[in-house]
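Write out this protein's structure.
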Amino acid sequence: MNPVPVSLPFTDRSEAGRRLAERVRPYAVTDPLVLALPRGGVPVGAELARLIDADFDVLMVRKVGLPGRPELGVGAISEDGHVTFDDLALARMRIPRQALAETVEAERDELERRRRAYRADRPAPRIAGRDCVVVDDGVATGGTARAALRMVRQAQPAQLILAVPVAAPEAVESLRSEADALVVLSAPDNFHAVGEWYRDFSQLSDGHVTAILAERGRAQPPSDVTRGVRIRSGEDYLDGDLTMPATLRGAIVVAMGEGRADPRWRAISSVLRRAGYATLLLDLLTTGERAERAEGADTGVLGDRLNAAVTWLRRATDAASEPVGILGSGTAAPAALLTAAEHPRDVNSVVVYGGRIDLAEPSLPKVRAPTLVMLESGDSFVRELSEWARGRMGGPTDLRVVEGAEQLLEGGQEWRRVATEALDWFDRHLAGRQG
């Protein structure tokens, strides 16, 4: 991600973490973990992790400076003991690696001391399979960040992100190949040192770091509560999973014909919940219908069932007074539009993914809720049908194509785009509204 202009300097490191949060959120999807580089990255990372509801820990890496000039970094040591040198810098200064042997050993000892001080007997966090965000208060040369990223990469994260408030432009370019994504708020051309971009850049002690880690441990919010539900619609019963986050800012019905147990739909729902939305993950086809009617399901029947689910959500849960959105996929996509048309006061925003939304034709003029149409491909026929349907809706709409999303449930990573596009739409059109 390219840096964008922001107001500088930052007030302090905590403010910088808050300003990073919304830029990082789309990347922190799968069981996210924020790893801060002590000491300066810790208050930045703690605030970032709090706002995106991610796990938080420190990542021990020590800069290797020149003897007599410790501020001039020419390498770094990571927690796993690996030493990374800036060989280009050493070559320019005609300094061999061997000349740094004593410095390396001293920094290795300091690294171990900090590990004991910050983590004690607590094990290092699990990294494999998680979206890991490496955070520091800024990047000057990139040596420390490079060592940290390489150490995390070896543990096989699902996605590796480097997030910093400010960085030297040259360092940004040198680090692009080390991470899957870079989130840098600003890379000023006149960059000289990280500290000059903060009003308060007070030196931090080990006590500051351990206090923040202890506070994060005490401040962990209670786990989301999930329960299986059965919702009656006429003579039929629908199976669903309702999850309520600790802090509630709205509710979203994630509806499909079938497939609510698929881990990718559960991951999409998890993204929504971490942003403060209760989720009702719902199959609109009954158990007996799934094998026979998945492709030929009656849109009107599915619309009635989704209507029943929205009514139940309003009457029987803590989301009664919260704004409600619908994410309808496949056969549930046209049903989502029917429900929005029938419940203009209850449904505040809609996202439809795939499916034949033109099948909701009679109800389209009554759809007032802001609606995002997401297509699985740019196929001209599918797009023409979707544009035709959009033109008949009574409220604001937008259309996005997620290339490759037809592989959503077949092991691809395109579900991340579905999740982040849906979250962005609900944040813009649902959060803060009242039903």
